[in-house]
Amino acid sequence: MSLPDWAPDGVDTTVPNAARVYDYALGGYHNFAVDREFTEQAMKAWPGIGRVAYANRAYLGRAVEWLVDAGVRQFLDIGSGIPTLGNVHEVAQALAPEARVMYVDIDEVAVAHSQAILAGNTRAAAVRGDLRRPQQILADPRVQELLDFGQPVAVLLVAVLHFVADEDDPAGIVRELSEALVGGSYVAVSHFTRTAGLDQEQDQVTKLYDQTPTSVRARTPQQVAAILGDLELIGPGVVPATAWHPDPEEEREPEQAAVLAAMGYKPIRS
Ligand SMILES: C[S@@+](CC[C@H](N)C(=O)[O-])C[C@H]1O[C@@H](n2cnc3c(N)ncnc32)[C@H](O)[C@@H]1O
Asked: How far is the CA of 81 from the centre of ligand 1 (A)?
């Protein structure tokens, strides 16, 4: 099979992949037949899952706007996905043209496509990296070159921590990332959670994800708060993403509560 021109050489088109499944669910076209089949199966098992993806993406946009408003001008977006509508650099740089954004993803298609659309943008870049290896991400010379860790940075962990197993110590990962940040920095999180009345649907989708390289797990609001560790939980706390500084215009469905959101803050110590 010949690869489309946006696909990097050597990409495995036989296994569904979270980045490309999410891209397809959001109406994107950087995905393969195996990803589309997977998404159709997931949507059959849980018809509302597409709305959950949209609610998550909408939260990402609101969180970035809120962070720019709070004065943040640097973003480290890990598990950034395949560029689609409302990318972090577009949202941030529309409000603050000087904002800098480093995208990191484990998926080579996400990174290749991000690099393609960022060509010529000197304040945004993309690298391949694994959230489970935070020190490697922080030490990457391209990350160090773009971001000034002497100034506040917002780390975005949006719809990615649910791909990190307990054995890989998500709280330890967030702690290592936060230790690299100065006071006045933030960690924004969204995370899959169980919702009442959808047990079967969510079980089936979770099982489907076992076919991908990144299995998925739900966590409770308490577990998400624990992952944020010593960071101050600001704003409404750990809440359904649609309830995090809600957009009055957004249509909300009860099952969108399957994605939680929270904002951790590293206080400035005097
Ligand atoms: C559901 S998408 C979320 C994309 C974007 N953050 C958003 O919320 O719109 C999850 C992304 O996390 C990436 N991912 C999964 N595990 C990862 C890991 N260990 N390190 C970095 N990225 C990872 C996937 O490749 C995928 O692009």
From this structure: 5
